[in-house]
Fold each of these.
Amino acid sequence: MRTLITAATILLSTSALAAESQIHRDLAYAEPADESRRLDVYAPADGKDHPVVIWLHGGGWRKGDKANVQRKPQAFVDKGFVFVSVNYRFVPQVTVKEMTGDIAKAIKWVHDNAKEYGGSPNKIFVAGHSAGAHLSALVCTDGSYLKTEGMALSAIKGCIPVDIAVYDIPRQLGGAGPLRASFFVSAFGEDETVHKQLSPITHIAKNKIIHPDSKASSFPISRSIACSQFPGPKLVQVSLTCPLCGQRLIAPPPVLKAITWVGNHFSNSGVEAL
């Protein structure tokens, strides 16, 4: 508990102690350029090759805005990150598949322009809350979206979905009451094949290594994700380091619960509350 309190205190430091940041707003990442497909960049004033966090807001796939970031940008800039908050189109204007395509285009833009804002194209993380968490998980597991933009999943070094209910849409619909089911159907439609395609869990496969990087520890983490839904050996724990507070996280199995646990740690460390 003391570690979490200390991390929160650091993240909530006064503006006098906060790192200076450069803010670039309303940058278009897709054509045609419109208000629905723009992003804001918050970058440290100095340095280069900073890791980059792409943030996807929530809103039930129907609403939300990149401006609703509270103190997240400053929290990440204080830790030496470039923070990018993304707008995307909503249903019913577009489908969730097209929405995820917007996210892939934003990732491509960030990759191609990261150096201009002091970031590294080789240190990109994708995070999001609620609907944004679903979109982040989907674009980071179904490689087809990034492939359309000429990129591979290996370009993403980490995915941080915070508070997500739809890793498995068919399962969620199967246990939902009428009102909740209606809410999901209005976003995802009624086609069960589409539900599976839009479920991040569908794209986690045995021997599919997700988000590899140069660290040896990335392989067992990826393997644990792959093995969580298939026969074979399973890791007892998932171990990684919080990029904000530096705390070593030992997350409990099964892996999908472990991902949620890590998301909760981010919230407790001040990220979602900021």
Amino acid sequence: MVRHLTRQTLKDKAYEEIKSAIIKNEMRPGQLLSIDGLAAMLDTSPTPVREALAVLSSEGLVSIEPHRRLRVFPLTEEAIKEAYEVRLVLEVWAARETSRKVESSPALRRSLQALRTAVTRMLDQSPGELPKEASVGVDLKLHDILTGSVDNKLMRELLDLMGSRSMRIRTYVESDREPRNESVITKEHLEIIQQLLAGNSRMAQKAVVSHLRRAEERTLKTLRMRLQSDAEGGASTARLRSPAPSGDAVGKRAREPMPPPQKAATRQSTPPLGVPGLKSRSGTTGRGRKPSR
């Protein structure tokens, strides 16, 4: 049976597609967003897109600037530090709650035991060469277990919200991480799992704090290296495009009068280029398709 697409359904669809593109960094940090352009790529009207962007703004993934300009929220050192500070509060609390339920919840214990077995086998089979996808999978599974064991609905929502932000940071900042570091990170997760299974609340919380502190250091280090690399690459490109003039040329230019400023040509606003992976209602991606007239 074909389900009628209501306005709420269209808003939810637009929200999921745009959020996914931001988290996967198919929409880059700081990128300007066009409501009309996104609506064309999603094959919908501007209203559901506008409503979806309002929700994403409340979640800290989209920023609304003066004159109603919309932009993917940029990733900065300050933003990363704030994210880890909040994660410390939430995840330490979740670890405490989970460790207290292990004895009374057979299902929770089985989930943790199955994850421990999978992680141990993974580390044994790939010593020092663990793929990033495997490490991320362990991280997400542990996050699901911790979140699922929390009874407080608001805390679960906050954990999910921070999970989305953490995935975005991981995808963007840690994309260049060495494979051997994935094994280090997975061993940190294994230590958390062991302490949770032991029902040792104090040690489980300590393991979470240790992991998050190290993760913050790794993330900030990688971000600084990436920003430095981008800056050096931009400087190199500028030098290639504008070679330094000779001394005679510099003197000659200094003696020549400056030409009057020219009036900038008027540019028509155009929607952003198609975003790889952003699907329309018809199932096609935004790349290469023309907006409907």
Amino acid sequence: MKKYWIIVFLVVLISGCKEISELEVSPEEAEVPTQEDLIKETTAEDISMSNQALEQADASICNSINSQNIKADCINNVQMKKAVLQLDTSMCNQLADESLKISCTDNVLLKQASQKKDESACNKISDEPLKNNCRDTIISSKAASGDSSSCSQIADVAQKDICTNNALITKAIEKKDKSLCEQLTNEFMKKDCINVLNQ
């Protein structure tokens, strides 16, 4: 009987010993990522590829994106960037979505107007706030050269004040005239202007 238990013990002991390769986790036992984990991982990779495509203005990179929504956005964003870089509104017409076509065209027109410093070119922009911002920015840049006459055309009151103050500062420094500093509406700018002229 004692011999019988020793044999049973050895059989159990031997059968319990497995090769190391048998101890590895089987696919059934492995921790399977959840659908949410897979979506997060895919989305992060897709967004990264979309950003790379936009940086390089290369729509072919978008084709490797798994998410159809992110892929479509990527292609549209690259197309819009190319249109703005090339100042070509006809490239905007290749976009399927009408609101994207309009936004793209407006951004091309904004860049064209900014480069030419022509506020009348801003009038072609369909988005009113963007159109006003375009005009105000161009007018303000002209005023920075000392000409405040166009500042009165600016619709936004705060932007109009900035425009006028910038023109006055430029004139005051050019003419070394502290009385022009006194006309500034912003007290901080007034003090700075006087300090610059006192040096």
